[in-house]
Amino acid sequence: MNEPGRTRRSGADEPERAATRSGGRSARRGQAAGEARADAGARADAATRADAATRADAGARADAGGRALRRGAVSGAVPPRRSALRARSFLGTLKALDALSAAGAQVSVRVADIDSGEAVLVGDDHLTLPVAGLGVVPLLIEVAAQIEAGTLDPLQIIERTAVDPVAVGGLWHQLKAPVLPVSDLAVLAAAASDATAANALLARVGLDAVRARVEQIGLVKTALLDGFRDTRGPDDAPHVALASTGELAALFAALVNAHVVSPAVSAQVSEWLSLNQDLALVGASTALDPFAHDDDRHRLLFVNKTGRADGIRAEAGVIAGPRAGAAYALIVCFDDLSVAHRVRAHEAFRALGLDLMEYAY
């Protein structure tokens, strides 16, 4: 007997029904696979568009960030990151520095990625060596800090006769203007390594204040010892300033990343230093205009300061391009016996500049 509510199915109908069910499942699987492939294609297309937009946005942010920092815009945000390139040999720099060392020069160098802080090139970066005009950097930091604190008026007029005449470098001693405001003196000290302007600023803020500021920002191997002098007697400090390349590279990285004293102070000092017209050493490889390079059309950010004296060449700074950025410092102390000795020292700086450009681009 048949159970109520159930219909007996013929065995002959089973193959047809099985085929129908199998075909339906295959069709559904094919439809699902097609939808999955279409979805995957859409996601891949969206990812490609997003990646392109990200690269374009990163380049634009790096460009805008560099310009904003140089112009003193200080939002307090961390500067944009670049994808640093790891495979950089710096073989040209190593070869040039080896030649200097073989000739009896004392060499110290450090290059570090500006974003990660990872060391790229290190050579005796712990040594404390004379750096001549690079001692202006801690002075400028103290000037900017006092301006921000309101204890120093950037428009305060300083008389040139307030300091002893000095002609070792700069422009003010050649100008007719007998007085200049503090902010103009800072520009001259940073852009033209003006010895008279630097001495006038030092007399205004005080050497003790600069030394206290150096300690406050954590530098232990960097010191401003004295002002600039045409000649140094036995009672004078033997050098204007001392520093290590390890601390100098870290200091410039901190300035560009807005970590020195405050974002406003970091931006102001970076802006002053971006006006530096001495591009004859590392800067020679950048092909920048020495007189107008604070907003380069190729998105190259270059902030540097040099130091020069008999037998001393020193430079520290930051170079950043669309793909990477690095903080660097190089000090060479050599026997200044001939032009050939100077040329050999300068060649090492230019070799470093070429390697840094390759790193940034």
Pattern of helices and strands: HHEEEHEEHHHEEHHEEEH
List how many beta strands DSSP finds.
Answer: 10
Question: Uncertain segments of ≥5 residues (pLDDT<50)?
Answer: 1-87
Strand order of the largest sheet: 2-1-10-9-8
The major beta sheet can be summarized as: 5 strands, antiparallel
Based on CA atoms alone, the radius of gyration comes out at: 31 Å
- Summed over residues and divided by their number, the pLDDT gives a mean of 82
> Whole-Å distance between the termini?
89 Å
Q: Summarize the amount of helix as a percent range.
A: 40-55%
Total of helices:
9
Residue fraction in strands:
5-15%
Helix/strand class:
alpha+beta
Name the shape in a single word: globular
Tell me about this structure.
Helix 3 (136-149) packs across helix 6 (207-216), helix 3 crosses helix 8 and helix 4 (182-192) packs across helix 5 (195-205). Helices cover 44% and strands 15% of the residues. The chain has 361 residues and is an alpha+beta fold. Residues 1-87 have low confidence and may be disordered. A five-stranded antiparallel β-sheet has the order 2-1-10-9-8. A three-stranded antiparallel β-sheet has the order 3-7-6. A two-stranded antiparallel ribbon has the order 4-5.
